[in-house]
Write a structure and sequence with these properties.
single chain, alpha+beta, Pseudouridine synthase, 2 domains, ten-stranded mixed sheet, two-stranded antiparallel ribbon, 5 helices, EC 5.4.99.-, RluA_PseudoU_synthase, PsdUridine_synth_RluA-like_CS
Length: about 240
Amino acid sequence: MSPEEIQARLLYRDRLMLVVDKPAGLPVHAGPSGGASLEDSFDVLRFGLPKPPALAHRLDQDTSGCLVLGRQRKALRRLNALFAEGKVRKTYWALVVGQPAEDRGRISLPLRKVTDRKGWRVKADAEGQPAVTDYRVLARGPSHAWLALSPRTGRTHQIRVHCAASGWPILGDPLYGTSMTEPDRQGLQLHARALSLPLYPERETIEVEAPLRADMVKNLRDCVDMQGDEVCGHS
């Protein structure tokens, strides 16, 4: 990703933090085998500071949307604490295969990371760590639904596993649900739409939204009979 591209994806900036619109398909940091990552571009986000910003949390490689970076060491510690204490309110948008019975609800399923010869994944398990996700149906189609999901805990792959375990996996999720079969629909249909972050005790909570990427706009329009402008403007 070029410096111009990463700078164009900046959603919010102040003296302590940045929020960028992470693209789908790019990991936030290099894995054990190396490779390109979003961190490779952080140097262009220094904006006069001696060091580049650092990740305050993570998003899955195939998830797009709001990603928070700390610009200073003290700020990064504060941001890490806010995420760890559940004080950052996050909203994800997802296109799922299937239909929740209720328009609103809460998924409370403990999660546990398991490893086998094929690698690792997360599964719902009574012996796992507590995990809670609230959901709201934004629109329904014949065989799909558009959901707003708010994780109350921050477990790895939480939203993906909770949706799959509930009987409505996220479209394009080859690990926990259904991969794309149509050639014109690509990628995990999960987007970190918005966050609310109380970084400054004496100021208003910071509110940031990431625009929905083009492939999700098209898929939502096709699957739940929404117009493109309705999809982009829905809150």
